[in-house]
Design goal:
The complex is a heterodimer of chains A (171) and B (143). Chain A is an alpha/beta fold and 171 residues long. Helices cover 40% and strands 15% of the residues of chain A. Chain A is globular and about 55 Å long. The N and C termini of chain A lie far apart (61 Å). Chain B has 143 residues and is α/β, with parallel strands linked by helices. Chain B is globular, with a radius of gyration of 14 Å. Classes of the chains: A alpha/beta (171), B alpha/beta (143). Chains A and B meet through helix 4, helix 5 and helix 7 of A and helix 1 and strand 5 of B. Chain B: InterPro entries: Oligosacch_biosynth_Alg14. Chain B: It comes from Litoreibacter albidus. Chain B: Pfam families: Alg14.
Chain lengths: 171, 143
């Protein structure tokens, strides 16, 4: 592992700003994890990884599958989330009021069964507090630039969905 | 009192299901999930997808046990495969059923959603273009 890994290790117990890299729990995503590990190895900022399936990240604070409460706590502690374009993480970031950068998985690289994450990313791009890195190389400038926090509070689209389901349930 | 069984897979499916919890106000709701969500009141269902026949059978057995135990009037699912199995079985024993396709499916209904169609009394997507293409109901989205 690069020597920078040791530098990163020194920050493990720090309370300062932190980046949470998560690829969900279902499928590995080495393109993103490897890129962020290389990036983190030359930075001093603390980076925590949830790699899903075992990825053997030596010298980093890496977890396979965080229990849901610890996952939420890690999202809370992060200044920004870097993630695959999974709805679970997008919702968690929105709920915690944290900015998120999503990297869609590609079927052509065997990262998912199909390209629905690209469609999701396309549909969500431009929302407050959310950036899309279409290539992992887009990540460093996005991480360096300021990102607003997502809109908090009630979402009228969600309220109308809930109302529709409620009226069906109670009918 | 209406008995609701709300069922989904883990991760984003589960988070979307929990965001709908207000829709069950006034009903007696039981949650079931095919992942461990760290809550012992949530019933657990073996995970599967529509391309793993052996695990599908295990999930089917788990679904029967849950239906027997909960005896729901209404089944609500946000996907994926385990949700559609519970929904189909529930429909066969007279439950009213709601399918809400994941907000991740921006351009088309998921495979599970397409399977669920015939068995859903309320068949929903969270994207208007998908509603226009498929005839599903659109009433909003969790995002």
């Amino acid at each position: 592992m690069e020597t920078g890994g040791a530098e990163n290790r020194r920050n493990l117990c720090g309370r300062g700003p932190m980046i949470f890299v998560t690829v969900g729990t279902q499928l590995p995503f080495p393109r993103l994890v490897d890129f962020m590990a290389r990036w983190a190895s030359v930075k001093t900022e603390r980076v925590v990884f949830q790699t899903g399936q075992a990825h053997g990240l030596v010298g980093f604070e890496a977890h396979g599958d965080l229990p849901i409460r610890r996952f939420e706590q890690t999202v809370d502690d992060a200044r920004i989330i870097v993630s695959h374009a999974g709805i679970g993480t997008v919702l968690a970031a929105q709920f915690a009021g944290k900015p998120i950068i999503i990297v869609p998985r590609r079927a052509a690289l065997a990262e998912h069964r199909n390209n629905h994450q690209c469609a999701t990313a396309q549909a969500l791009e431009g929302r407050a507090g959310l950036r899309v890195a279409w290539e992992v190389e887009d990540l460093p400038p996005l991480l360096a630039s300021a990102c607003e926090v997502p809109q908090h509070g009630t979402n009228p689209r969600c309220d109308s969905l809930v109302d529709r389901v409620r009226s069906f349930v109670s009918a | 009192m209406v008995y609701v069984l709300a069922v989904s897979s883990g991760g984003g499916h589960w988070q979307q299901l929990r965001l709908l919890s207000k829709a069950f106000d006034g009903a007696k709701v039981t949650y079931a999930c095919s992942a461990d969500v760290g809550d012992e009141t949530v019933l657990q269902l073996p995970d599967c997808n529509l391309k793993t026949p052996f695990r599908l059978v295990r999930t089917l057995i788990g679904a029967c046990q849950i239906l027997w135990r909960v005896r729901p009037d209404v089944i609500v699912s946000t996907g994926a495969a385990p949700g559609v199995l519970v929904l189909i079985l529930g429909k066969c024993v007279g439950c009213r059923t709601v399918w809400i396709d994941s907000v991740a499916n921006v351009q088309r209904m998921s495979l599970s959603g397409r399977v669920a169609r015939r068995f859903s009394d309320l068949w929903m997507t969270q994207w208007k273009p998908v509603a226009l293409k498929t005839g599903a109901t659109y009433a909003g989205a969790v995002l």
